[in-house]
């Protein structure tokens, strides 16, 4: 059986969710190549290129304020209360991608943003589990023995006093 491409896997994850989300969902690579777009039309290529550019510009602006080593925890939103765009970066197989939603006439943008967040987390979990199964990622190590103690010179009496109502 032939292995599925990343595009096919993303399509398999996102297509069933389209009925419950009133937005245009898309996934692009960091270099602006479209991986998935729920609305395949003449704007698909433009959306992917613009998403990549706006994210890179945002990273450059953030570096002026503070050096951010891990931008995976950021999100980008440009919206009003009923329409806008929402972007999340995520990593698949060590490469950066963006999951986004473009929406209009949305009654509950907070719910939509939550749905997109959950989709991003699901994709990361599924791809990470697949990579672990294939041996592409090292298995997470489990600490078997305690390496040290945070407080080495504290007595039981001092601990009791610390957590009593009176404090230290």
Quick structural summary:
The radius of gyration is 22 Å and the shape is extended. A hairpin with a 2-residue loop joins strand 4 and strand 5. It has 168 residues and is an alpha+beta fold.
Blueprint (SSEs and pairs):
Blueprint: H1 6-14, E1 24-29, E2 34-37, H2 44-65, E3 76-79, E4 84-92, E5 95-103, H3 109-134, H4 156-162
Antiparallel strand pairs: 1-2, 1-5, 3-4, 4-5
- The CATH architecture is 2-Layer Sandwich
Q: Find the CATH topology.
A: Beta-Lactamase
- Distance separating the two termini: 66 Å
Strand composition percent: 15-25%
Uncertain regions spanning at least 5 consecutive residues: none
Number of discrete helical segments? 4
Query: What is the level 1 CATH name?
Result: Alpha Beta
Mean pLDDT: 82
Question: Mind explaining what this structure looks like?
Answer:
- With 168 residues, the protein is an alpha+beta fold.
- The protein has one domain: Dynein light chain 2a, cytoplasmic (Beta-Lactamase, 2-Layer Sandwich).
- The chain has helices spanning 6-14, 44-65, 109-134, 156-162; strands at residues 24-29, 34-37, 76-79, 84-92, 95-103.
- It has a five-stranded antiparallel beta sheet with strand order 2-1-5-4-3, with helices on both faces.
- A hairpin with a 4-residue loop joins strand 1 and strand 2 (34-37).
- The N and C termini lie far apart (66 Å).
Name the descriptors.
single chain, 168 residues, alpha+beta, Beta-Lactamase, five-stranded antiparallel sheet, extended
